[in-house]
Amino acid sequence: MLGNIKFIGELGKLNLIHESILHKCIKTLLEKKKRVPLKDMGEDLECLCQIMKTVGPKLDHEKAKSLMDQYFARMQSLTNNKELPARIRFLLQNTVELRNNNWVPRKAYVDNGPKTITQVRQDAAKDLGVFIPPSTDSIRNDFFMDSSSFLPGKIKYDRETLGGLADMFGQMPGIAPGVIQDHYSPTMGRHRSSPLFNGHSGNSNGSHQPFENESKPFIKPNQISLRPAQSFIMNKNQVPKLPPQTMMPSPVGQVTDNRLKTCDFLFMAPQLGLKANPPPIQEKPAKSNKKAPPTKEELCKMTETLLTDYLNNKNVNDAVSAVKEMKAPKHLLSEMLNKIIVYSLDRSDEDKEHASTLIHTLCTEGLVTGDNILQAFLRVLDQCPKIEEEIPLVKSYLAQFAARAIIADLVSIADLAHQLENGAHFPLFLLCLQQLVKLKDREWLTDLFQQSKVNMQKMLPEIDQNKDRMLEILEGKGLSFLFPLMKLEKELLKQIKVDPSPQSIYKWIKDNISPKLHTDRGFVNILMTSFLQYIAYEINPDDDEEQHAAPSKDQLEEEKQLLLSFKPVLQKFLHDHIELQVSALYALQVHCNAKRFPKGMLLRYFVNFYDMEIIEEEAFLSWKEDLTQEYPGKGKALFQVNQWLTWLETAEEEESEDEEY
C-alpha cells in the first residue's frame, strides 16, 4: 500500500492526477474507520505522511488552506494519542513540523542511490587526488605478484625487507600516522594476509627467510608491478620510469643494493601519484539530433500560436501536424488542451465548434486521450472564479465543450457526472444536458442518461437532494422528460380524480406514457400507488386513523367496488408479468406502511387481488421469499399476511397433487 501511495504522490507532483483525487486519498487515509481500532490505523497514517511529504507543498495553497489546516489539526491531535505506536506518532510529528517550516526539511536529502562507474571515478579523483582509469586486463594482476610467485622456490619478501611498505599502502591518504587502520583499510587486510607481507615463508618453524634459494636470481624487473592497491591505481603515464641501471638483471652479490633501490622507488611512487594532478574526466555528450521537449511555458506559447493560425485558416490537418511537431510530453497534454479550451471561450460559437473539432481529431489520431480531455476540463473549472470576471457565461461555454466531447465518445456522461457530484460547479451538469438536447434530441439523451445510471439527486446541492425539489429544478431547466415516471406520479392521480373510468385512464396513459415504460417496474409501482391513494381518499376523505383501523361495512364494500373498477387497467399491464405483479405488491406494502399498517388492510387487499385474479399465486409467494430491503415495512407486512400465505401455499400444493391423480 505504501508503494502505491508513493506512486500516486509522484503522479501528483507531475500534474498527472487532479488535486481533487489527491484530497480524496488524504481524507480516506485520515478518517476514522468504523470497527477499526485506532492502533490498527498505523499503515494508513504512515501512507498519509508519505503523500504529504510528496505533494504537500503542491496542495498547500490559498484555495486549499482551510482543508490543509483541518488535515494537520487532526494529525496534530493524533501525535498525542498513546494508542498509536511511537514510530507513527513521530512520523506525524515530523510531517506537522515540516509544514510549519514551510515544507523545508531539516537536512538536505543525501543521494544514496546507485552511481555509474564514471561517477565513481570522478568522486575518487576529486576526493583522493587519484585518477582511476577504466578496467583493463593488467588491473587483474595482484599487487607485486603474478601467478608464478606462489610456486615453490620463488623469492618472498618479509615485512622487514619491504621496510614498512605494506603499512604505507594500507593507509588511506589524509589520515594522520599512528592511527590503527586494521579494521577499516580495505587494502591492509589483503596485504597482511598475503605471503609477501606476513613475514612467513610458509614453513613450519615460522622463521624469517628473505631468500628461499640463494642460487636463483632475484625477481626480474619486468615482473615487478609498480601499481599500489586497487583504490590507488594510477595512470600508466604518471608512473615514472626506473633508471636504466635498475632495469638490468642483478647478480646475487648486488641483491641487497638493488633491493634498497627498489624499496626507495616504491616509497616514492605513491607519493608522486598522490601529488600529481589527475587529468579532468570529461564525458563526451552523446551526439543526438533529438530536440528537447518543450517546457510548460513554451508549450502554452506554441499552442496559442497554433490556435490563432488554425482558427484563421480552419485547416485541421495543418493544426494536427503542428501538434505532432510540438512533441509535447505526456504529462503536459492536459495543459495543452486546457489552453485550447480557455483560448476559445470568448470566441464565437463557430470558433468553439472548430476548437472541439480539433480536440476530437487529436483524440482520433491518438495524440490525446479521453482522460487528458477530462483533466483539462477540470483544470478549466478550477480557474472558473477568475475567468468569470471576464467571461460571465463561462459555464455555459464549458457545457458546450463537454456536450460535444460526450457526443464524440471522448468522455462518458458517467465520468463527467462523477466529477460534479453533490452540486460541484452547479448547474454545469444540467447545462451540459441542455446542450446535448440542442445538439441531438430528447430521445437520444433519455436513452444515454438511462444507460449511464447517473443518480440525478446526487448531482444537486445537498440541500436540494429530494424528489420534489429535483423535479422542480428539472422542470425549470426543461429536463423533466428525463424522469417521465416522476411526472407521471403527480399527474396520474389528478387524472384519476378527474375521470376514474378505466377507459379514460387507459387512454391517458397510452397518450402520455411511452410504450417502453409500460413494462417498467417503476411505472407499475406508480400506477398501483395512484389507485390505492384514490381509493383511500374516496372511502376516508379526512384520513381518519380510526376509520382506517376499523372501517364500516359500507366503506369495505366501497373499497372493493373501486378496486374492481380498476381491475381492467391493472390486468392490462400486469397479466402474465410476475415481476410486475411483485412490484405492485411492494407498492401496496409501502402504502400500508405509510398508513402505519391499519389492522386488516393489507390482508383485505391480498384477498381481493387474489379473488379478482389481479395478482397470481406465484407473485404472492415470490414477494414472500424476496429479501430486498428497498421498500420499508416488509417485516410488519409478513406478520399480517403470513398465515394467509401459508394457506395459499398449502392450497396450491393440494391442487398440484390433485392434477397428478
TrEMBL record:
All copies of domain W2, residue ranges: 475-658
Residues annotated as transmembrane: none
Protein name, as recorded: Eukaryotic translation initiation factor 4 gamma 2
Keywords: Acetylation, Initiation factor, Isopeptide bond, Methylation, Phosphoprotein, Protein biosynthesis, Repressor, Translation regulation, Ubl conjugation
Domain spans labelled MI: 298-421
Organism: Oreochromis niloticus
Family: Belongs to the eukaryotic initiation factor 4G family.
Keyword Thylakoid appears in the UniProt entry: no
Function, as annotated: Appears to play a role in the switch from cap-dependent to IRES-mediated translation during mitosis, apoptosis and viral infection. Cleaved by some caspases and viral proteases.
A single GO cellular-component term on record: eukaryotic translation initiation factor 4F complex
Lineage: Eukaryota, Metazoa, Chordata, Craniata, Vertebrata
Region Disordered: start-end pairs: 192-216, 274-296
GO biological process: regulation of translation
GO molecular function, one term: mRNA binding
InterPro entries: ARM-type_fold, Initiation_fac_eIF4g_MI, MIF4G-like_typ-3, W2_domain
Record field: compositional bias (Polar residues): 200-210
Domain of life where this protein originates: Eukaryota
Quaternary state and interactors: Interacts with the serine/threonine protein kinases MKNK1 and MKNK2. Binds EIF4A and EIF3. Interacts with MIF4GD. Interacts with DAZAP2.
Entry keyword Ubl conjugation: yes
Any one Pfam family match given in the protein's UniProt record, by short name: MIF4G
